[in-house]
Amino acid sequence: MSALSPCLPAQSFRPGPLARLAAAVAASSLPLLFILLWSSGYVAGKLALPHTGPLTLLTLRFGLAAVVLLALAVATDAPWPHRARAWGHLAAVGLLMQVLHFSCIYFALRWGLSAGVAGLLIGLMPLATALGAHLWLAERLSGRQWAALLGGLAGVGLVVADKPLGGAWASYAAAGLGLLGLVAGTLYQKRFCAHMDLRSGAGIQMAVSALAVAALAGPTEHFAVDWHLELVGAWLWLGLVNSIGAFSLMFIMIRRGQAGQVARLFFLVPGVSALMGFVLLGERLSPLALAGFAVSALAVCLAGKK
After folding, report:
1. Which listed residue, of 40, 124, 256, 280, carries a Cα 20 to 30 Å from 272's Cα?
2. CA torsion, ordered 296, 299, 305, 306, to nearest 10 deg
């Protein structure tokens, strides 16, 4: 008798205890993996920038991610946008969330901003996004969110007060502009690209971003690259693990209904980035700066609580 005979009753597959345990461990490890991958991007960028310019590094990063994502979209027959307007929305998100955000962060890192402080500023993204949604999308801010926003700003103030800014104003301003780019891209995607396919949508964003930064890197940096082993490792990590892995994990957790958890996870980004910077780059923070990290972390955590 054929194994596909319709006379046989259908049997539902029930995973065993080991399979259920493995699935539970995998689900619980996603947040930790996301934090490690997201935070590592600042350290990897800091390691790569002595060997090439910020725009050239982004051309390499976005180009690699675009090739992989577009190939994956074609190989898996992913759906593509049907209207020119949808392509334009994806391009706009890429220019904001990728080009503006990362170019500003990389210039700030090259101008002396530490990986930990960069992580601190970008770690305020949930607070800044809530404020942006209040101003742009008319979403209501609760009293707790207003308090968290003020607490996050106070934490940044403590970190900045610890360092004599002098010529460092440019690096802080660039990082702040990068945060605005990330927030604007997040809100834009929420409003116009909420149902994009991860493979084709992210591939289009990365391809547009690669072309945009390449157009700037050519005349300004002449694509000068010192192919040091440190640069190659950082480039592969940024293009494959950080650009694709971290954003995919965030998308997966949001699709599973864990948007609030994703917001709370950002309170760990500054501390993990600072720890990575200390171990891998020798960056140090004073007690006042550490207090600022703690205040900002608590503020982001407070904002993410239900």
Report:
1. 256
2. -150
